[in-house]
Amino acid sequence: MRYDAKGALGMYENTEKFVDLDFEQNVRKAAYHLWEDDGRPFGEETKYWFKALEQLLALRGANGETTNGSAADKSKPAA
Q1: What is the rounded distance in angstroms from the CA atom of residue 50 to the CA atom of residue 22?
Q2: Region for 69 from its dihedrals, namely left if φ exceeds 0, alpha if ψ lies in -120 to 50, beta otherwise
Q3: How many angstroms separate the CA atoms of 4 and 28, rounded?
Q4: Which of 11, 20, 44, 49 has the most CB within a 10 Å radius?
Q5: Residue 20 has what DSSP assignment?
Q6: Backbone angles phi, psi at 6, to 5 degrees
Q7: Which of 60, 57, 51 is closest to 30 using CA atoms?
Q8: Which residue, 54, 49, 56, is CA-closest to 34?
Q9: C-alpha span between 28 and 17 (Å, rounded)
Q10: Are 55 and 30 in contact (CB under 8 A)?
Q11: Which DSSP helix (H) or strand (E) runs through 33?
Q12: Do 31 and 48 meet the contact criterion of CB atoms below 8 Å apart?
């Protein structure tokens, strides 16, 4: 399903196929909440984006998930 430029998916039209859009949306939401919790400081969007990204990547690693969001098979050695 594809939406026009005003639709929800329009902004992802040229996104690489390997990008996990759910994870990106979770980073976006987490960054927004961190920014709000700190009083909405002006001009520090990048700081909060990377802070949220770092936290969620650490959580993903702690949960044993791979970069595509699936659980890693720990019985097989990494290739």
Answers
A1: 16
A2: left
A3: 22
A4: 49
A5: -
A6: -85, -15
A7: 51
A8: 49
A9: 19
A10: yes
A11: helix 21-37
A12: yes
Q: Say what the pTM is.
A: 0.59
Spatial CB neighbours of 45, under 8 Å, sequence gap ≥ 6:
31, 35
52 sits in which H/E element: helix 45-62
H/E run at residue 57: helix 45-62
Cβ–Cβ under 8 Å, residues 57 and 50:
no
Write out pLDDT tens, residues 26-70: 999 999 999 999 999 999 989 999 999 999 999 988 887 765 555
Strand, helix or coil at 6? coil
